[in-house]
Amino acid sequence: MSYIGRFAPSPSGPLHFGSLVAALGSYFQAKSQQGQWLVRIEDLDPPREMPGAASLILETLEAYQLHWDGEVVYQSQRHDLYQHQIEHWLQSGQAYYCQCTRKQIKATGGFYQGTCRDLTLNQPDNCAIRLKMTHPIYQFEDEKHGQLTIPTALADEDFIIKRRDGLFAYNLAVVLDDIDQGITEVVRGADLIEPTGRQISLYHMLGKAPVSYLHLPLALGDNGQKLSKQNHAPAIDNRNPKPALLDAMRFLGFEMPQDIKQLSVSEIIDWGVKNWHLQQLPASIEITPRFSNRSP
Ligand code: GLU
Known about the structure:
Its cofactor is Zn(2+). This is Glutamyl-Q tRNA(Asp) synthetase. Its EC number is 6.1.1.-. InterPro entries: Glu-Q_tRNA(Asp)_Synthase (IPR022380), Glu/Gln-tRNA-synth (IPR000924), Glu/Gln-tRNA-synth_Ib_cat-dom (IPR020058), GluQ/Sye (IPR049940), Rossmann-like_a/b/a_fold (IPR014729). Pfam families: tRNA-synt_1c. By secondary structure, the protein is an alpha/beta fold. Helix 1 crosses helix 9 and helix 6 (about 170-180) packs across helix 7 (about 195-205). It folds into 2 domains: about 5-75 and about 180-285, Rossmann fold, CATH 3.40.50; about 80-175, HUPs (Rossmann fold). It starts with a strand and ends in a 9-residue tail after the last strand. It is built from 9 helices and 12 strands. Glutamic acid (GLU) binds near residues 8, 174 and 188.
């Protein structure tokens, strides 16, 4: 089977160092196996999006010479696929409406206890839609980290597939898209280890074979928190890509010759594809990156 990987950024802001690590790791893993590397813009949640971020992200990928295969896919254009599956599950009784508020769930210990499962609520207004959990996943195999464990209460929960505000849930969209796009392996940041259990459950409930998973170390800021758009992590530079590119490659465990700086960005990327080995990738889940001196 030929390898198909992907990079799936949410357009909540420009790419930062952490998302560059995810883009590079997924690219090297795909291209070192002569695979395809797809890009999917996960624009499922308009209130959290930044206008113009999607095109900015694509421009950044181009500036870093990360060229994707095929057309870019936008989740905002794929609502029919998600809705169709939800309706199928509602009809078969596998999904149901739930009126519990976050506050009520918090008051009963933080995990949803199945309160609405047998109520057969049928007015969609002001309700979320949940999926009956028939295939809980308590652990899975990661390509780098080996066996990873999912907390039982989380794995057992009937999770939300469509939110009360009408937005589709991330886990559902990701799995339906990964299946539809023929993805064979998901490479992404270690912040997504926990949702992986639910995603594997979805594959089982859809009667499909799950993909394999590789979670990359998470880049932490000086404050010890994950670098993220929500934390206002600085955007990486599009006009002068080499410093961030080399820092991100060092973060991924590459030992690079001193004179690599003399190469062009696309030559550095090619060097990365040829020299990518999973063994060199650090085994830690979280790392505070060391940035080289960025002054010219
Ligand atoms: N869209 C998610 C993010 O930007 C990544 C989803 C995934 O790789 O599965 O964090």
